[in-house]
From TrEMBL:
Domain spans labelled EngB-type G: 56-260
Record keywords, A-Z: GTP-binding, Magnesium, Metal-binding, Nucleotide-binding
Organism: Polychaeton citri CBS 116435
Bias type Polar residues, positions: 7-20
Gene Ontology molecular-function annotations: GTP binding; metal ion binding
Listed name of the protein: EngB-type G domain-containing protein
Sections of the chain in a coiled coil: none
Length: 283
């Protein structure tokens, strides 16, 4: 049905502080993340904040509860759904380190010798001008270990070039206690953060068949209600109107589109790409 092919950013997402991206914005974001000339690359992996290198590129971070679909989302963002760059596992808590990926920046030729930590840790020295860095954070809850969270918090609270944290929340289940605790902590520390509802295809069309326009409309209303519930929960929990403002809530699916074309972009992926570029001043 043609109605299924016209889902606009402001229909899928909840924009309260910024204007929805235009088609031109989304095309630019898509081109930046899917460039064959400068494809996203793994720069380094570390379990400790003290090992983060000093470079001038702006950063964003993705975090969420274990098994919220973070690795799948990153692979979709990086256009690596087949040849994955972020490891996807059915076992919760698989991501145990902080993993940094380049976006839109060239990797030059290696200069000098190894740093004693292997080729991947040396890649950041080859990072050219422009672009940004996306950091994949360890999951929390359900299999994750507390000590990983300590190092993650050091990064989130002290990394100067960190421009925004994207907190993934399962669209079906909403905010959990650990989500709220982390979101409240980041808000009180003044860390810019944005909620992303993942796996929205479970709400929009839970069966294998494509939904009718009527069913899709009702499901989108349910999704918008879920966004409003998240906002209200955060406002009640934090209790400070100035601090509790959640801003835009983005919605996505790393698995499905709203049509049967295999090459069609997955739900909400380009909007998240645009949000990353905007946060890093690359819009």
């Amino acid at each position: 049905s043609p109605a299924l092919l016209t889902l606009q950013p402001n229909t899928l997402n909840s924009y309260s502080t910024s204007n929805p991206p235009t088609r031109t914005h989304l095309r630019y974001a898509n081109a930046t993340f899917t460039s064959s000339k400068h494809p996203p690359e793994l720069l380094f992996t570390t379990a400790h904040f003290r090992n983060f290198p000093a470079y001038a590129h702006p950063e964003v971070a993705f975090l969420g509860r274990s098994n919220v679909g973070k690795s799948s989302l990153l692979n979709a963002l990086f256009n690596r759904t087949r040849d994955t760059i972020a490891h996807v596992s059915k076992r919760p808590g698989r991501t145990r380190t902080m993993n940094a990926f380049s976006v839109g920046a060239p990797l030059g030729f290696a200069k000098g010798g190894e740093l004693g930590s292997g080729e991947k840790l040396d890649r950041w020295r080859r990072l050219g001008p422009g672009g940004c860095v996306v950091v994949d954070m360890p999951g929390y809850g359900g299999g994750s270990q507390e000590e990983w969270g300590v190092e993650a918090l050091k990064f989130l609270e002290n990394r100067r070039q960190l421009r925004r944290v994207f907190l993934l929340v399962d669209a079906q289940h909403g905010l959990k206690g650990s989500d709220m605790q982390l979101l409240t902590h980041l808000k009180r520390k003044g860390v810019p953060c944005q909620v992303v509802l993942s796996k929205v295809d479970k709400l929009l069309y839970p069966s294998a068949r494509m939904p009718s326009p009527g069913k899709l409309s009702r499901a989108l209303w349910e999704l918008r209600t879920r966004c409003d519930e998240v906002r209200e929960e955060v406002e009640i929990e934090i209790g400070d109107a100035k601090m509790s403002g959640l801003g835009d809530i983005l919605c996505c699916s790393a698995e499905k589109s709203l049509d049967e074309w295999p090459r069609r972009g997955k739900l909400g992926i380009d909007e998240i790409r645009w949000a990353i570029l905007s946060a890093c001043g690359l819009d």
